[in-house]
Design goal:
The complex is a heterodimer. Chain A is an alpha+beta fold. Chain A is globular and about 45 Å long. Chain A is 31% helix and 28% strand. In chain B, 35% of the residues lie in helices and 31% in strands. Chain B is an alpha/beta fold. In chain B, helix 1 (22-29) runs parallel beside helix 2. The model of chain B has no long low-confidence stretch (mean pLDDT 94). Chain B has one domain (2-83): 2-Layer Sandwich (Transcription Regulator spoIIAA), CATH 3.30.750. Chain B contains 3 helices and 4 strands. The chains are: A alpha+beta, B alpha/beta. The A-B interface holds A 9-10, 12-13, 16, 31, 34, 37-38, 41-42, 45, 48, 89, 91-92, 95-96, 98, 100, 103-104, 106-107, 110-111 and B 16, 18-20, 45, 47-49, 51-52, 55-56, 58-59, 62, 76, 80, 83-86, 89-90.
């Protein structure tokens, strides 16, 4: 199930609706929406904020697989920007030393079993396999 | 849909505090002199963008010797703070 979204913060509402449509279509419980919303938002907003090449639309797909729900975000005519290379956040540092930056990717790592990035012919592809709920 | 309402020292958050709404939240919270109690009983969702706003407010309160508390978090919202390693910080009760 692939859908195209304009690369702007205002797309978040449409992404939220898309997640619910996907869960309903796949017969998955609605309480799966929270984690999916969070991972999609963190990755999508990264593409909005950090886009250095393409300003074009982003293709988002969701698929239910035996390994779990697989999410992809694909951008075209894009410079290389690898979110999986973001440094780990040290969550044990005192609050005074904590900075908000990098928290989004940290959350993606927490909620996924696989998180990868490919870049070829100026097409960037982020693939995330979501953790299954306990 | 995100709503923020301020009554005295209490800030009521409701709905979804995401990246599209974080500027609105920050604009409302940043001028408050403190102390601040955030009532999150109707906050349904928060992402890192929302957490960033609250971290900035928390640090500003602590630097000024003022209190900062977050109360009545739904479990799924509190989980995000757990993942972020912030559940024991930010004055969450």
């Amino acid at each position: 199930m692939v859908r195209t979204f304009p690369r702007q913060m205002a797309s978040i509402a449409s992404l939220v609706a898309y997640v619910r449509e996907f869960l309903e279509q796949e017969g998955l419980p609605s309480d799966r929406a929270f984690d999916l919303d969070l991972v999609i938002e963190e990755l999508f907003t990264n593409l909005v904020r950090h886009a250095t090449g393409s300003r074009g639309d982003v293709d988002v797909s969701l698929e239910s697989t035996p390994r779990g729900v697989v999410l992809t975000l694909r951008e075209y005519d894009a410079d290389r920007y690898d979110p999986t290379a973001a440094p780990e956040v040290d969550i044990h540092r005192p609050i005074a030393d904590r900075r908000p930056g990098g928290l989004g990717i940290h959350l993606v790592r927490q909620l996924s079993t696989d998180f990868r990035y490919e870049w070829q012919d100026r097409t960037g592809l982020i693939t995330v396999t979501m953790k299954e709920p306990f | 849909m995100f709503e923020i309402r301020i009554e005295g020292e209490t800030v009521y958050l409701a709905g979804r505090l995401d990246a599209a709404e974080s500027d609105l939240a920050n604009a409302q919270i940043a001028p408050l002199p403190g102390p601040i109690t955030l009532d999150c009983s109707r906050l349904e969702y928060i992402s890192s963008a929302g957490i960033s706003v609250l971290m900035v407010a928390y640090k500003r309160m602590i630097a000024g010797g003022k209190g900062f508390r977050m109360v009545n978090l739904m479990p799924r919202v509190k989980n995000v703070f757990v993942y972020a390693g912030l559940d024991k910080l930010l004055g969450i009760e």
